[in-house]
Amino acid sequence: MRKKTVYWLLAVGCWLLAACTSGVENPIKVDSLPAIYPDYVGVTIPVEIAPLNFNSTDPEIDAMDVVVRGSKGGELHLQGDEADFDITDWHELTQQNKGGELTFTVCTRKNGQWQQYKDFTVSVSLYALDEWGLTYRRIAPGYEVFSKMGLYQRDLSCFDEYPIIENTQVPGMCVNCHSARQTDPSQFVFHVRGDHGATMFQTDGQREWLKASNDQLGGSMVYPYWHPSGQYCAFSTNQTRQGFHVAPNERIEVFDLSSDVFVYHPATHEIIKDSLLSTKDWSENSPVFSPDGKTLYYMTCKQQDYPMHYKDEKYNLCKIAFDPETGRYGEQVDTIFNAVAMGKSLTWPRPSYDGKYILFTLMDYGYFSIWHEESNQWLLDLQTGEVRELKEINSERADSYHNWNINSHWIVFTSRRDDGLYSRLYLASVDEQGRFSKPFLLPQRHPKEYYEESIFSFNVPDFTKSKVEFNAYEAGREIVSDKRIGTKVSSPAK
């Protein structure tokens, strides 16, 4: 009996040694969490996410030793210059610990001496990601001249990134405003600016290039959002201008001399307008459909004298009924969130696909939130009417453009919280009560190197349930050809 007890104690002792200090000799215990980049301490992740590789923020360390233990079993151990996990091993560990936790033990060696920090945990969510990856635009944060930029997609289970289309396809081209139907890229749209302007629609691999502007609209088709049926796509048409601040903490301001909202019917190339959505004294903008397709949400503000009174440009959230059977709008507009009464402006409304919420950005004025440090994320509960600031995911710098995944348990959004200059992508989970987890930075294979050396900002992110199949070479030839399909405008009777 005594011999068995000795063996058991030896086994436990060996396990503890392996779990806490494997490959580490006589570490000094430090009563603080490790200083790592990115900050993954206490975040919640989906099973399918790429490894949470990280670096020490101390440039003088000689080595890092990391042990990850699953609350439901499994362990990873590595030692090197950074935490660089094997993708297959990582996914085996997250799958084994779905609904549990991963505990990280981090040691660093400096001047030959190991230090062991307090453990931290990462929760592995029960909610599946249900998406292949992300799409986004990547662009240098310039103002009037842009260098290499384009639309890209990223496999969220690993670190692979693929271009959808880049401006190297057509010199001087800018691409923006991309959107898929409820994260399904079989129906995909984006806008092309420049000498060969167009609005591209792709359905099941077949592309159409629409004229970039329609004289009856007075502008182009921008800020698209698909109807859940795929039979319609909502747009706004904007006469956009930009100005530049002289204040050190403010850089650029975007405002519209005018803007209207409409719905486009791809099958007939028909633009469906309505006088309620195209008013003289108000700017309607950024339309989105409800998940059942029977409501069109959009933001609107009183038209101002620009650029003199740009700080008076403040938007509310409105809605109007929409009948997908007839393509007709309702007879009245309702304001469902009055941001102006708070002295604020609302932008980028995005309904969750389960119909529970609308996620939006709130700022002091305007709608182009990416350069507004005060911009934050807010949530409207459509069942109770309650509106609250999402303090659990907001930062002191610009938190902006966002989208939901298809099961409405994950969001992706842009934030400048990292350095105040570049907008980067963060993900967070949402539980059944509408509570959000601590956001985490989009993982990269070598995160410190990647983000320090990148000169690009990420914006307009969205989830995609599969890889976007797009022939960029053929698309480039089609753009240069200037062969375009015209659109027609109609105003259906009530």
Automatic annotation (TrEMBL):
Transmembrane segments: none
Entry superkingdom: Bacteria
PROSITE patterns: PROKAR_LIPOPROTEIN
Cleaved signal peptide residues: 1-24
The UniProt record lists the keyword Hydrolase: no
Short name of one Pfam family: PD40
Alphabetized UniProt keyword annotations: Signal
Full protein name: WD40-like Beta Propeller Repeat
UniProt source species: Xylanibacter ruminicola
